[in-house]
Amino acid sequence: MVSCMSAAGAKNMTAVEVSLLHHVSHRDCKKKLADICFVLDIEDKHVARMR
């Protein structure tokens, strides 16, 4: 994932960031932070919080 994002021009993204970006933009509908954390199996919400 990370190497593909680097090839696409988005350098220095971690695997968690790539997964978050994909899930947030998937199907172009609003999602709650709790739902995103549940799907990606992230226990700490502060890890998934994007600025």
Characterise this structure.
The longest helix has 11 residues, at 15-25. The protein has one domain (16-51). The protein starts with a helix and ends with a helix. It is mainly alpha-helical. It has helices at 2-7, 15-25, 33-40, 45-48. It is globular and about 30 Å long.
Radius of gyration: 11 Å
Number of strands: 0
| Count of separate DSSP helical elements | 4
Estimate the global geometry from the Cα principal axes: globular
Mean pLDDT: 86
List unreliable stretches of 5+ residues: none
Structural class: mainly alpha
**Helix fraction by DSSP (H/I, runs of at least 4):** 55-70%
Oligomer: single chain
The helix/strand order is HHHH
Number of domains: 1
Head-to-tail CA distance between termini = 21 Å
β content, as a range? under 5%
Keywords:
mainly alpha, single chain
Would you summarize the structure shown here?
By secondary structure, the protein is an all-alpha fold. The chain has helices at 2-7, 15-25, 33-40, 45-48. The chain starts with a helix and ends with a helix.
